Each structure stands twice: as structure tokens, then as C-alpha cells.
Amino acid sequence: MTKQRFTEHALSDWMKDAGPESEIVISSRVRLARNLSDQPFPMLAANQQAVAVLNKLMEAGESEPLAEFGQFEQLLLTDLSELDKRVLVEKHLISPNLASESRAGAVLLSENESISLMINEEDHLRIQCMYPGFQIQEAWQLASKLDDAFEEVVDYAFDEQRGYLTTCPTNVGTGLRASVMMHLPALVLTQQINRILTAVTQVGLAVRGLYGEGSEALGNLFQISNQITLGQSEEEIIDNLHNVARQIIEHEKAARRRLLEESPLRIADRVRRSYGILSFASIMDSKEAAQRLSDVRLGADVGILTGISSQSLNELLVMTQPGFLQKTFNEKLSPEQRDVRRAELIRNQIGNKFHDGGAVI
């Protein structure tokens, strides 16, 4: 493996396979927050202590218990440019917090990038596992095995009553954050989304945008995750998220059927207009690009457009982000220049890969 491959390719290998319900669920992710028992939390640690944590966890990543998960590429944040760190954030391989605020920070990445082990982020260790489509239980099983492997070689900060101890009180207990990234255009178009998302928050789940807490839900992409980490077992948290996500999937499918039955020409026109604009626009900001790509994805999923793969759309979603645009064109770009380059990149991709397959009426 080479370090450059993680920032030069928009699509991680794990995203190249279509998972279950991939027309609605883009990805499933599980993240575990852990701290070492003999070191202060990162926010209180001196530089020397942060380096000690880094060295200990880097060694753990190369230990025999971790060997069954394959080789990990070790990336020190100090060895990466600001642009490379931004690209890793856009690919969800590291968090914004690790990229901007970490001391003695690092990430260990598996070859297919489905496993990301972040060191000295908000907590000493963040174990992250990602799967394509609706595979939240599979992601949890992998994360749990990794957690057990680490626990063989390091001592976690753990309390019999409170569970795993974390920097942020909202993570105390299981330290588990599980999420599914969902594309819900039909619920938005039929104006059901607010009712659905309100119900979601009432059962202890949170709704965020593409990049988690504090980010906007662009392109009708919503991240649904658990809020409660204390007082429930890991299995209960995963089962609750799985069951709620399954209900949202069925609501989105019903909304898509309703749109095609009641407004087939209007939906076909919306999809084709976005396809046309993406094909010929000379300037496009990230918000419009996300919305137009959402329309095209919907059109592909319901058969209005053919020859469009989810893989190509997932790739475009990353390629059109500010960091990756600058990486692709190998130049520092102003916001306006990024909008021009974004439109150029989309035109080239649309022209090379997609074609209109006729409306389903």
C-alpha cells in the first residue's frame, strides 16, 4: 500500500460493492470511542503524554491480535498536508476534529478503507467500521471484534457502573455511535420528511447531514444515528437503529411509488432537467451539485434514467467536494474557481458514463 492512494482515489474500495437496500441506504457505520486507563484524556494530556498514547496504539495496531484484520497503513497527521487531511475528511476516513485539533494524531487504515482507527482524536482511540448499503449489524460485528482485539493488548478506561469512560459525557457507557447514511428524496418531495424525522428523534435517534454533527443535509442525504450510549447494551442500540431505519426505508419506497403513480411526468421532467443542467452547466456550487445529483440518483433508482451506477454517483459526490476538487486539478482554488472546476468535472463524468433511458410512465 502507498499513502497517496488514500487521497488520490475518490471512492474507497469498500464502496464499490452494492450492499443491501443500496438504492436508499448509501452506507452503514459503527464507531467506538475508547481511552487508555493510564493516560489523561486527549484534551488534558501534555504533548509527551499524547505521543506516548500514539506510540502505544500504533504498536497495538501491529500486534498479533490485530493481524487477522490485515495490514494497516499508518498515517501520521503531521506527515499530511492540509489538503490531504481535508480529502480524508471528505471520504469519511477521519473526522474534522482529528484533522484540525489533534495533537500527535494518526489514523490506521485497512487496505479497502472500511476500517479506520483514529488515534488522539477527542478520545485516545476511535474504532470505525463502514459497510456499503444497509449492513449496520455487520458493521457492529466487525467493530466488536476489533475492540476485543485491542482489549487484548491495551487496558481501557472502564468503570463497572458507568461503562467505558470517554472525553464527552454523551459517549459514556458503550461508547458506541452507529449510523446509516440514507438518500430520501421522495420523502422530501412528498413533504413527509419533517414528520418522519420528528418521529425518529422521539425514539432516541439523531438526524444529521453528510458529515455528521453540525453539517447540513445536502442532496437529500440524512445520517440517522443513536444518541443514547448509556443504559442500553450495544445490541439494543444496534437493533433500535436497524428497526427504525427499516421503517424509513419502507416509507421512502412507498413515497417513490406514489410519485410515479401520481406525478410521473413531473418527476421525469425534474430528473431530466437536473441531468441536462449537470451535462451542460459552466458553473455550479456544491449545494446545487448535491441536489442535482440527488435528482439523477432518484431517476436511476426508479428507472427514468439507465446506464447510471450508484458507484459513479457516490464517486461524484466525493469528487465534487472542495478538497478533492483541488486535489484533482492540483491547484489551490477560490470558491468561484471551485464552482467552475466542479461543473467541468461533472460535465466530463456525465458525458462519459451516463445516458437517458426514457421515462417510466
Q: What can you see in these coordinates?
A:
This protein is α+β, with helices and mostly antiparallel strands and 361 residues long. The chain has 14 helices and 12 strands. The strands form 3 sheets. It has an 8-stranded antiparallel sheet, covered by helices on one side. Strands 6-7 form a two-stranded antiparallel sheet. Strands 11-12 form a two-stranded antiparallel ribbon. A hairpin with a 5-residue loop joins strand 4 (115-119) and strand 5. Helix 10 crosses helix 11 (286-302), helix 10 (264-280) crosses helix 14 and helix 13 (322-329) packs across helix 14. The termini are far apart. The model is unreliable at 355-361 (pLDDT under 50).
> Biggest β-sheet: count, sense, barrel?
8 strands, antiparallel
Average pLDDT, all residues: 90
Instruction: Extract low-pLDDT stretches.
Output: 355-361
The main sheet orders its strands as 2-3-4-5-1-8-10-9
* Helical residues, percent: 40-55%
Distance between the termini: 48 Å
User: How many β-strands, per DSSP?
Assistant: 12
Count, helices: 14
Series of secondary-structure elements, N-terminal to C-terminal: HEHHEHHEEEHEEEHHEEHHHEHHHE
Alpha-carbon Rg, integer: 21 Å
- Content-based structural category: alpha+beta
Q: Rough shape?
A: globular
